[in-house]
Amino acid sequence: MLSTLGISEFDERVYRSYLTKSDRTAAEIAESLGTTPSRVRRTVSRLAELGMLRREGHGQYRPVSPHTALRALLARRRAETEAAFTAVWGTVDDLADEYRARRLQEDPTGLVEVITGEAEITLRVAELMQSVRTHFWVLDRPPYLGPYSTELEEELTMDLLGRGVDIRSVYTPEALAQPERFELITHLARIGEQARILPALPFRLRIMDRRVALVALVPGRYDRIAVVHRSGLLDALLELFDSYWQRGQSLVATAPATPDGPSAQDLLLLKMMQAGYKDQAIARQLGTSARTVTRRIAAIATGLGLDTRFQVGAEAAKRGWI
User: Residues 241, 311: one domain?
Assistant: First the structure.
């Protein structure tokens, strides 16, 4: 059973012998297992290197708790396996690039896939998302394919962050207009997603691992997309993303929280004000009324000794709240 961790059946038998009676000598263990002391000593040295036995004196060893030793060994083997798979995937990507380059020489139309129809787009996007390993960059603006779900977006983003993916997103105010989405994105931005906002974007764009990009082909619709593979066109899309990224404004605070800073709800409200949301739109995000939003903004202004919304926004930015 422990062979997956690089522990042989004989290694395990020796370890179990120490667990049964920790003060036994190599000769005693060899006799009980029907083997030679030299073989037992070699195995003991190996188990000590693996962290399963601890030396306490000349020729004396004590077993380390299985829970401690095997968990550490399992974590080490898992890290080694993941590193090996990462290296293999890198080779697979290199081979795929060589294959695609040859195919493009024969048939340049393979540079871009055109996918149409909700079912086909959903399937292709899912396939590409499962393969993301290093980068996921997005210019996010409506329209979207199918109904929006905060639960699904949070699950997807957390999965990518768990894989160590570099997530960078530039949103328009319209993209964050879905109820509760603004709050979700600011939360995700605090735990790993890099999120910025701009008043407008030319189209919706997704870039995976800097190797492939998805672009909506028809303005105002997302039922026809282009999948762009490595090429001069993809390089241009990478440059385009970077230009909008540099211009975007961060959705998270630039300074650490302070005791006199706003509450979480007021901070969210200030961020939406900064993004250009009207009171009615803020109310929809917060699940309250526009009148309540107006009163809260007035209370923040009063607390800061200010008169106008513009002054509130400027002061909040100056303090690094937004």
Answer: no
* Rounded-to-integer distance, Cα 59 and Cα 25, Å: 8
Q: Is the pLDDT score of 77 beyond 70?
A: yes
C-alpha span between 61 and 55 (Å, rounded)? 4
Identify the pLDDT of residue 65: 85
Q: CB under 8 Å to 167, separation ≥6 — which residues?
A: 136, 137, 138, 157, 160, 161, 192, 193, 194
Distances (CA, A) of 309 to 253, 294, 317: 19, 10, 12
Q: What is the pTM of this model?
A: 0.58
Neighbours of 58 (CB within 10 A): 5
Helices (H), 21-149: 26-33, 37-49, 66-106, 118-130
**Domains identified in the chain, total number:** 3
**DSSP state string for 231-295:** SHHHHHHHHHHHHHHHH-EESS-SS---TTSPPHHHHHHHHHHHTT--HHHHHHHHTS-HHHHHH
> For residue 207, what are the β-bridge partners?
137, 213
Which of 85-94, 126-135, 258-267, 313-322 has the weakest average pLDDT?
258-267
Range of the domain at 191: 107-250
Say how far apart CA 145 and CA 118 lie, in whole Å: 7
Choice among 79-83, 102-106, 190-194, 275-279 with the minimum mean pLDDT: 102-106
3-state helix, strand, coil in the chain (%, to 5): 55, 15, 30
- Asked whether the beta carbons of 154 and 259 are under 8 A apart, the reply is no
Instruction: Encode pLDDT of 222-248 as tens digits.
Output: 778 899 988 888 999 999 999 999 998
Q: At what angle do helices 181-191 and 150-162 cross, to 10 degrees?
A: 10
Q: Hey, how many other C-beta atoms are within 10 angstroms of the C-beta on 297?
A: 18
Bond prior to 143 in cis (omega within 30° of 0)? yes
- 229 with 144, same domain? yes
On whether residue 101 sits in a domain, the answer given is no
Q: Is residue 149 part of a domain?
A: yes
